[in-house]
Amino acid sequence: MIDAIVIGGAFAGLSAALQLARASRSVLVVDAGQPRNRTSPAAHGVPGWDGVPPADILDRFRADLAGYPTVGILRDRVNGISGRIDAFQVTLDQSDQVEARRIILAHGVRDILPDLPGLSEAWGRTVLHCPYCHGYEVRNRPLAVLAAGPMVAHQAHMLRADWSDDVTLLRNGVEGLDKAALQGAGIRVDDRIPQRVGGANTLKIAFVEGPDMDVAALFVAPRVDLSDTPSDALGVGLADGPMGPYVRTGPMQQTDVPGVFAAGDLATPMWNVNFAVGDGARAGTGCHQSLLFPDFIPALEKEAA
């Protein structure tokens, strides 16, 4: 039986595996090969890796793990989890079922983008979600924010404050926005309905009526989903974040299911490579401690229904 199966082989999952590897524990990382930031040309704000493509950073992480004989990385997809602490069974798409004493969830979240033609094709390049990750590269240029959820005004105010004095909020039919506060902060509000987006270095936004708009980037705060994921299959407790649910975790990334830890984008309402690496290190360390001392890191209490 494997000591720990890490589900997800991006920044959080590989960081967790490294901590266990350094304790000579047996670890299997199961990775579907679809990291959330795979369309982004560069990761920013990551010390030592600022401006480096995410895929290159992950290649280095995997190369680091290759030096530890107790770690395996399997390109596969998890389609079922059952069992309990010290006796979990994980079913895979293309490989035999594997058993493990502990589970670390690091499979990320599913982004739900607005239904706007061209948006998904530009996602991560000129359609962006995070000013901290991508705002510096488009600073002092025209920017737009697409209303797609409760974070739209928050995004627009942030961008206007420190990244550009030319920010337009595309209301996109969303009601309840404080237009006076937005306009008072120097943010234009466009009531037209976007029809499609496209372009490479500059994004062109076409509307149902009226002239097109050219911007350096369109910011969107997408909803996220964890349904039909390994987290969902295990029934771990969730909390409500501004963009959707995330897994509740304790100080060592433990969940409310004994023997199950969670790290990365699925376990926080704010997403960043740095946070993922740190959460992964805590999850790996917490997992190791629980293998040594089963009562040292208790699972979270279940929330009342």
Automatic annotation (TrEMBL):
Coiled coil ranges: none
PANTHER family: THIOREDOXIN REDUCTASE 1-RELATED-RELATED
InterPro entries xref list: FAD/NAD-bd_sf (IPR036188), FAD/NAD-binding_dom (IPR023753), Ferredoxin-NADP_redctase_2 (IPR050097)
Superkingdom of origin organism: Bacteria
FAD/NAD(P)-binding domain sequence ranges: 3-272
Protein name: Thioredoxin reductase
Keyword Disulfide bond included in the entry's annotation: no
Aminoacyl-tRNA synthetase in keyword set: no
GO molecular function annotation: oxidoreductase activity
Keywords: Flavoprotein, Oxidoreductase
Taxonomic source organism: Pseudooceanicola nitratireducens
Listed SUPFAM superfamilies: FAD/NAD(P)-binding domain (SSF51905)
